[in-house]
Amino acid sequence: MLDLADCRVRLATTLLSDVLDGMGWRAQALPPRIRPLDEGKVLAGWARTALFMDVHEVVAGENPYALEIALIDDLLPDEIPVFACGASGRIAPWGELLSTAAQARGAAGAVMDGLVRDVRAIRGMGFPVFHGGIGPLDSKGRGKVMQCDVTIACAGVEVRPGDFIFGDADGVIVVPRAIAAEVVAGALAKRAGEEETLAALKAGEKLAAVFDRTGIL
């Protein structure tokens, strides 16, 4: 099991991405439109997935939030709800209430390719949220969760339940759980090499010489 507290301090999306590239996993970064609500926050934990579908009416007597609520209430510490909402920009499924409920259950943050709202309140809570935009539109009558804990495509990147999710100011990386320990070990080794490279560059060595010695850029 990964030491997530250590990961949040020592890892970076760039390190994980480089290691994944070297292993042949070259499409694990969510696209640039997925941004942190607070660039100072780092996200590290295990995916719990939800798949939304577009709807265009409010159905009388139906609770449109039923599966969404069930997922949030079932969260365990260090889990991360990952919502596949599509790119329509029609819904803001995440706000202050879900952030509060998720944070109270020990969740490590949230990721979605849909919108987020109540942004001042969420920033004040210090809860890490990565989103596809900001807007006020409630999901009721516009979109609802159809399945939870299934394979989804969030902003075009496949996410499976239990995958390792890491996010920082540079974006979000999805690491398949089966290779998470190997990827994190490689990223930490790369960090050590980069620290050596930085020290050499700060000491005045030329970049070409340092690269020839370390192979790190």
Salient structural properties:
elongated; 33% helix; 217 residues; 2 domains
Structure description:
The protein has two domains: 4-176, 3-Layer(bba) Sandwich (Glucose Oxidase, domain 1), CATH 3.50.30.40; 185-214. The chain has seven helices and ten strands. The mean pLDDT is 95. It is 33% helix and 22% strand. It is elongated. It has 217 residues and is of the alpha/beta class. The relative contact order is 0.22. The strands form two sheets. Strands 1, 2, 3, 4, 5, 6, 9 and 10 form an eight-stranded mixed beta sheet that branches. Strands 7-8 form a two-stranded antiparallel sheet. Helix 2 crosses helix 6 and helix 6 packs antiparallel against helix 7 (207-214).
Task: Give the topology.
Layout: H1 4-10, H2 13-22, E1 35-36, E2 43-54, H3 66-73, E3 79-84, H4 96-104, E4 110-112, H5 119-125, E5 129-131, E6 143-148, E7 152-154, E8 157-159, E9 164-168, E10 171-175, H6 180-202, H7 207-214
Parallel strand pairs: 2-3, 3-4, 4-5
Antiparallel strand pairs: 1-5, 2-6, 2-9, 7-8, 9-10
Helix pairs in contact: 2-6, 6-7
